[in-house]
Design brief:
- By secondary structure, the chain is mostly helical.
- Helix content is 60%, strand content 4%.
- The protein is built from 11 helices and 4 strands.
- The protein has helices spanning 3-17, 21-33, 43-52, 59-69, 79-86, 92-105, 115-119, 128-131, 137-146, 159-170, 176-187, and strands at 40-41, 77-78, 112-113, 157-158.
- It has a two-stranded antiparallel ribbon. The protein has a two-stranded antiparallel sheet with strand order 3-4.
- The longest helix is centred in the first third of the chain and has 15 residues, at 3-17.
- It is elongated.
C-alpha cells in the first residue's frame, strides 16, 4: 500500500469511527476549507484540512492525494471526488448483485446501457409527465439513465459508471444482506 492509499485509509477509518455523520461532517468541513470558494480543494487546502483532522501530510503527499483522486483532470479535488475516494471497497456479494442488475438492463449485451436497452426493459407510458404530454417516453428513459451516467452525460452507462453510482449507495448500508435485498427488490432480480 503506498502513501496515498495509507492516507486515504486513515481518513476513511477516522470517518467511520465518527459513525454515520462522519462523512457528512467531513463534507461540511471541506466546504469550510475551500478558502477561495472554488468548490474544490488544491493540495495546500487539502494539506491544511487533513492536519486539522490529525493527519499530517507533507506537500508532496497532499499533491499525490490530489493527483490520485482527481477524476476530471482539474488538478484539484472537488467534494464529490474526495468523498468518492473515501467510500469503502465493496464486497464480492455487492459487486455481483450490481453486475446482475446491470446485465438485466444491458439488453444488447454490449457492455453499455443506452436508452434503446431501457426500452426493452421498462415502459414509461404511465409516467405522469408522459401522460400529461410534458415529456416523451424517450425523455423519461434518458433522465433515468442520466442518474447512473458520469458527469459527462453521453447517453451511455458502462458497468464502471453503474458500479460507481451504487458504491455511493453501498457506503450507506451496513450489511451485505441489506444491500443485496435492496438491489434484488429494486431491480426484480
Amino acid at each position: 500500500m503506498d502513501t496515498v492509499d495509507t492516507t486515504m485509509e486513515k481518513l476513511r477509518e477516522q470517518c467511520l469511527s465518527r459513525g454515520a455523520s462522519g462523512i457528512h461532517s467531513l463534507a461540511r468541513f471541506f466546504r469550510r476549507l475551500d478558502q477561495d470558494k472554488s468548490r474544490s480543494l488544491d493540495a495546500r487546502e487539502l494539506q491544511q484540512g487533513l492536519a486539522e483532522l490529525g493527519l499530517a501530510l507533507d506537500m508532496a503527499e497532499a499533491e499525490g492525494v490530489c493527483r490520485r483522486w482527481d477524476r476530471d483532470g482539474s488538478g484539484t479535488l472537488d467534494l464529490e471526488e474526495f468523498l468518492r475516494a473515501l467510500r469503502p471497497p465493496m464486497s464480492q456479494a455487492r459487486e455481483a448483485v450490481i453486475a446482475a442488475a446491470f446485465a438485466k438492463l444491458d439488453r444488447s449485451g454490449d457492455g453499455v446501457v443506452t436508452v434503446d436497452d431501457l426500452r426493452g426493459v421498462y415502459s414509461c407510458r404511465a409516467h405522469p409527465k408522459v401522460r400529461s404530454g410534458e415529456w416523451t417516453e424517450e425523455e423519461v428513459l434518458r433522465r433515468f439513465l442520466d442518474n447512473f451516467d458520469s458527469s459527462e452525460k453521453d447517453g451511455q452507462v458502462t458497468l464502471a459508471e453503474f458500479q460507481d453510482y451504487y458504491s455511493g449507495v453501498s457506503a450507506s448500508m451496513d450489511t451485505d444482506e441489506e444491500f443485496v435485498a435492496m438491489m434484488t427488490s429494486a431491480w426484480r432480480l
